[in-house]
Write a structure and sequence with these properties.
- By secondary structure, the protein is α/β, with parallel strands linked by helices.
- The protein has one domain: Rossmann fold (3-Layer(aba) Sandwich), CATH 3.40.50.1820.
- The chain is 50% helix and 15% strand.
- Strands 1-2-4-3-5-6-7-8 form an 8-stranded mixed beta sheet, sandwiched between helices.
- A hairpin with a 2-residue loop joins strand 1 and strand 2.
- The radius of gyration is 21 Å and the shape is globular.
Length: 315
Amino acid sequence: MSRRAILRALAATAAVSIAVIASIAVMGALYEPNITIPKGFAGQHLEVLGVPLRVFQEGSGPDVVLIHGSPGSIEDWSPVLNALSSTARLTVFDRPGHGFSGDSGSYSLTYNAHIALALIDRLGLQHVVLVGHSFGGATALAAALQKPDSVDALVTIDGAAYTLQRRPDAVHSLLTLPNVGIGVARMLGSALAPKKIHASLVEAFHGHPPSEEFLDLRARMWAAPKVAHALASEFLGNSAWLAAQSPHYGQIKRPVFILGQADDAFRRSTAEHLHRDIAGSSLRLLPNAGHYLQFEKTADVVAAIRAAIAVRAVQ
C-alpha cells in the first residue's frame, strides 16, 4: 500500500472515530434522567439545596437518618426500616445522582454531607442519630465534622473511611467525561451493566447470595446512565476526599458505633483504624458476612442503632 493510501485510510478512520465520539457526546448532552418515582416505590420528592431528593419517613420516636452507599437507594435500608419503625422516626433518601433523586453534578463527601445536613434542617429533625453504609458511612463522618451540633451519635457500617479497597479503572474515567460518559452509559448500560451488577453484588454478600428480586431491582436502578455517571465520579474522587477528611476523625466527640466485616482483612483493619482514631468509639466486627451487613447481620446493625439512640438520649 502506498504512503498516500495509508494516509487516506488513517484520515478515514479518524473521521469515523470523530463522528462516533460526536454522536455519543450528543446522546449524552440530550439525556434527561427520568426521576419519576414508580408506582409501588416508597417516598416523594423534596427539594434540598436545589436538588429533588426522593425522601421517605416512617415510624415515630427518636430521629434516625440513614445514608446509603455508592451506588444505592432507599431500598438498601428495608431490613432496618422493618425492625425499627415501631420505636424510631426513620428518614431515608436517595443521594443525588442515585435512585430516583435528581443529579447536581457534585459528588464529593463534603457535598453529600451538606445534602444530609440540609435535609435534617429542612425536616426539622432533632438530636439525630446518623447511620451510613459504605460511602454513606464516610458521608456521616463528614457531616459530624462539618456540623457537630446537628448529629448526636453516628453508626458507620463497613465504610472505607481512609482509602478504597479497589482502584478505579479506565471505564470509570470514561463514564465521567462530560457528555461522552453519559452517552456511553446510554448506549451500553442496559446491555452490559446488569450482568456486572449481579456479579458484584453476589461477591459483596460473600457466600450468602441475595434473592433474585434483590439483584434484579438493583440491576434496573443502577444501570441508569445517571447512576453510572455518579458512581464513577464518586469512585474516582473518593480516595482524595478520604485523604483530606480522615486526618480530622479525632475531632469527632459524638458517640460513634463502628460495624465492619471480621473476615475481610481490608474492612477489618479499616474499622480498627477508625476505632483507634475516634476516642470512645465502639467497634463490632461481624463474622460470616459480606459488605451488606444490614441484610446479613440485621440484628447486629439494629442493636448498634438502638445503642446509639440510647446514648444520645442521656447526653
